[in-house]
Amino acid sequence: MQTKTAIKLLVLLALVSLLLPRSLLYAHGDKRPMKKGILLVAFGTTVPEAQISFDNIEQSVKKGLPGVPVYWSYTSRIIIKKMAKEGKQLATPEEALAKMMRENFTHVAVQSLHTIPGAEFHGMLKNVHKFTGMDKGIKKVLVGYPLMATSEDVQRVAEAIIKVIPKERKKKEGVVLMGHGTHHPANVYYAALAYHLQKLDPNVFVGTVEGWPEIGDIKSDLKKRRIRKVYLIPFMSVAGDHARNDMAGPEEDSWKSILEKEGIKCVPVLKGTAEFREFVDIWVDHLRAAFSHFD
Ligand code: CO
């Protein structure tokens, strides 16, 4: 009878322990103080002038979340390789998290500086979550949304675009934004953005280098509206290689050349979205939202 009761008690205890949150069970073994950090993740750039975008983001992040250490990492392996040849060692998100793990960070907010939740974002998401809950490692990794994730973000980005258009542009002149574009289903974000832009200003268009809409679509839209002059603006965090060559370069297949062949005057603006407070504020808000879950 007594052994039976003891067994019953043991079974009950085992069940209760299964129901207890893991943090409670292991807490006594991990006496490290809470150490919060931020890891910024960008695609990366090989253009030194474009570094201004990243410096601007870092300043805003430090202002938005004072006192929290900020680390950087990049998702483009091609860019990391190219920069290594120039003697600059850039970290991948995994390398940066391993370093933060060693430095005893317990809570890390990872902020994606990508524009859409596409292939780069989802690949990073998959990997960084693996750093949650490793033994002697980071207890919690949370990821902030890229620039456009929710419907509200798309609306906010459209409004930001209208705000950063050069003041000298006249209403009848066009504005053409160059997005990156992707084979990933998240390419639909560009169409969603175009919808909001059309509502705010019918002469503002968004196209992509590697997705849809293409420059051919934009060209026919401009001709339909009889637009004779456009401002070309990159819709990427940095004014890097795509902006300097594919958008504003002298090659025959650059957007500038394609439109000028149609008699449309082009004024390129070589500034990435991360150089404008209007966009950086959205990324910082996303980071703050992720970070607030640590409290
Ligand atoms: Co590209």
List strands and helices in order, with pairings.
Elements: H1 2-19, H2 22-26, E1 36-42, H3 51-64, E2 70-74, H4 77-85, H5 93-102, E3 107-112, H6 119-128, E4 140-144, H7 151-164, E5 174-179, H8 188-200, E6 204-208, H9 215-224, E7 229-234, H10 241-247, H11 255-260, E8 265-268, H12 277-291
Parallel strand pairs: 1-2, 1-3, 3-4, 5-6, 5-7, 7-8
Cobalt (II) ion is lined by residues 180, 242.
Defining key terms:
binds cobalt (II) ion, 4-stranded parallel sheet, alpha/beta, Rossmann fold, 295 residues, 12 helices, 15% strand
Task: Summarize the model shown.
This protein has 295 residues and is an alpha/beta fold. It has helices at residues 2-19, 22-26, 51-64, 77-85, 93-102, 119-128, 151-164, 188-200, 215-224, 241-247, 255-260, 277-291, and strands spanning 36-42, 70-74, 107-112, 140-144, 174-179, 204-208, 229-234, 265-268.
Give a written overview of the molecule:
Helix content is 44%, strand content 15%. It has helices spanning 2-19, 22-26, 51-64, 77-85, 93-102, 119-128, 151-164, 188-200, 215-224, 241-247, 255-260, 277-291; strands spanning 36-42, 70-74, 107-112, 140-144, 174-179, 204-208, 229-234, 265-268. The mean pLDDT is 93. It is of the alpha/beta class and 295 residues long. The strands form two sheets. The protein has a four-stranded parallel sheet with strand order 2-1-3-4, sandwiched between helices. A four-stranded parallel sheet has the order 6-5-7-8. It is elongated, with a radius of gyration of 24 Å. The protein has two domains: 23-148 and 278-294, Rossmann fold (3-Layer(aba) Sandwich), CATH 3.40.50; 151-272, Rossmann fold (3-Layer(aba) Sandwich), CATH 3.40.50. Strand 1, helix 3 and strand 2 (70-74) form a beta-alpha-beta unit. The structure holds cobalt (II) ion. Cobalt (II) ion is lined by residues 180, 242.
